[in-house]
Amino acid sequence: MRSHVTYQLEELEIFKKKLLNWSLRFNEISWLDSNNYIEKYSSYDALLAVDAMSFLKTDSMNAFEKLKAYQENIQDWMFGYLTYDLKNDIEDLKSDNLDQLEFPDLYFFQPKKIILIKGEQVEFLYEEACAGEVESDFRAISQTSETLSNHRIDEPVKIKLRIHKDEYFDKLSHILDHIHRGDIYEMNFCQEFYAEQTLINPLETYLKLDAISKPPFASFLKISDKYLMSASPERYLKRSGSKLTSQPIKGTAKRSKDSEEDQALKKGLKEDEKERSENIMIVDLVRNDLSKTAIKGSVKVEELCEVYTFPQVHQMISTITSEVPESVNSVDLIQSTFPMGSMTGAPKVSAMKIIEEYEETKRGLYSGAVGYFKPNGDFDFNVVIRSILYNASRQYVSYSVGGAITSKSDPHKEYEECLVKAKAMREVLEG
Fold first, then answer.
1. CA 108, CA 395: separation in Å to the nearest integer?
2. What is the pTM of this model?
3. Who's near 43: CB < 8 A, 6+ residues apart?
4. Distances 49 to 52, 133, 184, 221, 223 between C-alpha atoms, Å
5. Residues annotated as part of the active site
6. 3-state class of 27 per DSSP?
7. Mean pLDDT over residues 399-408, rounded?
8. Looking at residue 344, which CATH number applies to its domain?
């Protein structure tokens, strides 16, 4: 059982900064923020979960069965993540590439304290044993400074490329050979940028990244010494009762400070035959994934190739929905669609095999998902892109970017698109 206590807020943005500073005392933090982005599928403006009462940490072997058992056992809120490498639990696949971040393949925790923000109200959902701490915590949060304490790291981070430009073009040539042979017809190819022996302030880094990007699916995650700082614009999958919603992104264009040029870039993306083709391929893949659990005839494409504008980029987004029997377990719904098609390609299994061959690093949490389950089984998860990952013990910082490769891909434009996607993370880290 959880206690419910609601307070009225006056300065929302200030309260959010104080709340994040206050949360740093805990070993487990999950912060999810919509940045006041208005979209019809949102449930909360922001959520904070801290302090694990119980947790599940596992590698990919039987991970979904373990998650289902954990969910059925606690029947409570759960916050956490699914890494891309859970693919190995679903299909006969492997992940043998370099892993310097060392995030567990799956991690979820049952928080003692949950704080939900909606409009000008903040609701404290505390586990019964902590119910008496609500008032003192609210007072402590209100009295916390909105500015970070003096742990600022001013030295810019020296970013290295895991795949250099010539090698990128060589790999792309081989991937295009696979496409022309018919092994696959689309593949998401990613590359890592990284820094070793590096100290960063994770919350400061997150706040800078968030301020630059203002994405609708931002997240800050701390699990002991491991951190995610995410400016994701993409929803992977949401369940609300019997309705499932997926909103894959495929298609990116840079922004311009000149309004006329910016509108031309947006229009160009909307009309770009290659970008539309990429998006439609993934829409077909998502429709197929959702049809595995859908009530017959209920899979619908509500939006096709709509262009949305964010501070750093224009993005082409589609929205696909389905109706599922309410008796279907939520973990089964995720397993039947994971990993998300926008981060694999099609056909999905063939694409993932070729991804493993040509990428240099284990994806881990990058291109996985972060989110939450509610006690009734409803859930909402983002796609972990436009994100910085940090292993504080190893002093290792990493971000990855990728793009969809199709038969129409121009290697130089694909490389340029990667740099556009990497721009915000690079700015934040290099200063």
1. 24
2. 0.95
3. 240, 380
4. 9, 15, 40, 10, 12
5. 234, 250
6. coil
7. 95
8. 3.60.120.10
